[in-house]
């Protein structure tokens, strides 16, 4: 029984991280119609900047607050200096542009930080384990569950209840019409891209104490995040949540019961869902 | 027309004499470039002519490489047998993948092909007994041309084999895109909805061209394994799929010849940059970004525009 609970919590912790990354990927696709291949690198950048902040200040909490805006700012700058000029082209060009950006960023991080992985100490409050009715469970993973849920609810409320959220949804639905009605579409795109990068950066900072900051973590996470949004449906925040939970569960239980084939299970689940709904669980048919 | 025919003849003549002109390592590099060119050209069939962006094309290259490596290593068959087996395996695996992936369109199709390719990559990585896991399969021999026939071990012989495969594939693909089938593919690319409303079903066309493209990618992979002497999971990794897309865009989407040159320029840029700096990936990325923004027609597309402007 304790085992089942432990696996369930592990799945939720992984889902929390996956959600932070895939929500931004999905949001950017919904608003900009761009599949951002560089998204995983912003996650990685978040982890490395988190390492730097912890090394400078000695605390973990400042990293959680400072790093996401910095990553978001960089994302917004890159969007307005490159992607902005090619929205009218076919999607393949945008995909390749972000592929190029991913190569530049990944290699730049290698130049700055060197090839070795950087460990990040979790804050004292989240170290050690907590007793859950006989099950000793790491506090940090519980924190990831809480963080994923909090951000998920916050993003959902922001999009549903605020005026800015309304404009963003309008641009997602029909950017030409939104433009005609006076929405500054270019600005919305830049801000959404930046916000999505900030979310990925937050995911990176949060992941660092668990996985360390290492080269290649961006590529690993982007493929998982792709699976999440394909399952959940591109452009849907609810879909990202559902997809994250499914992938988190498939990977956790797969790794526990069938360690050799954990990845295979994730793709099998995805294939099964797509046979019935090619546009994802909560996505809209094109 | 006569101008392009003269160009084609000149290119064939050049292919025939280079082994006597180039130094040994240059010839080996050229062989490498031609294999990459074949791979990029196969991708252009689906990407340029049908408008389906596959982000998992490397998987079929890798399947061809593994099939070829296993057959040459364990059964010592002539190379063409390994080539056929590699192409056939890639085409066969592309049938279920294509059947599932063509249910979706646009970006969903790209992500599905990526996911299936990563799945195949994982299988190659984990199935140690068959594929050697992360070490891959080493020591793949260049056997003979046919049973009891001449050996292909010399650089010149293998170069000619690759050149013949490339030229034949190019001729076949050109005939394909100019056939009624190819016209239908281009109609799907231009306006799938209209194609459907004219009473045709687009999916069988997409599935068939997907399988054909995978078969040619498998052929390229099957040449790669004996040429390099190994097959490893890296050739199935998504980075290689992304590079394939870049080769096509660099050379010129929907031109067949363009992607071959695109692949050659792409690899040459990497070769040159990596001899100057360890961090060549930054500059490769920069070249990507600049080409995407400033040369949307690729090398061949831009050259044609300049010629047309005259």
Keywords for this structure?
heterodimer; A: 286 residues; mainly alpha; two-stranded antiparallel ribbon; 11 helices; 3% strand; B: 310 residues
* Series of H and E elements of chain A: HHHHEEHHHHHHH
Helix/strand-derived category of chain A reads: mainly alpha
The most extensive interface between chains reads: A-B, 45 and 40 residues
Number of helices of chain A: 11
Q: How many structurally independent domains of chain A?
A: 1
Q: How would you describe the overall organization of this protein?
A:
The complex is a heterodimer of chains A (286) and B (310). With 286 residues, chain A is mainly alpha-helical. Chain A contains eleven helices and two strands; from the N terminus they run ααααββααααααα. The longest helix of chain A has 31 residues, at 2-32. Chain A is globular. The radius of gyration of chain B is 19 Å and the shape is globular. Chain B has 310 residues and is mainly alpha-helical. The two termini of chain B are 16 Å apart. Chains A and B meet through helix 4, helix 9 and helix 11 of A and helix 5, helix 11 and helix 13 of B.
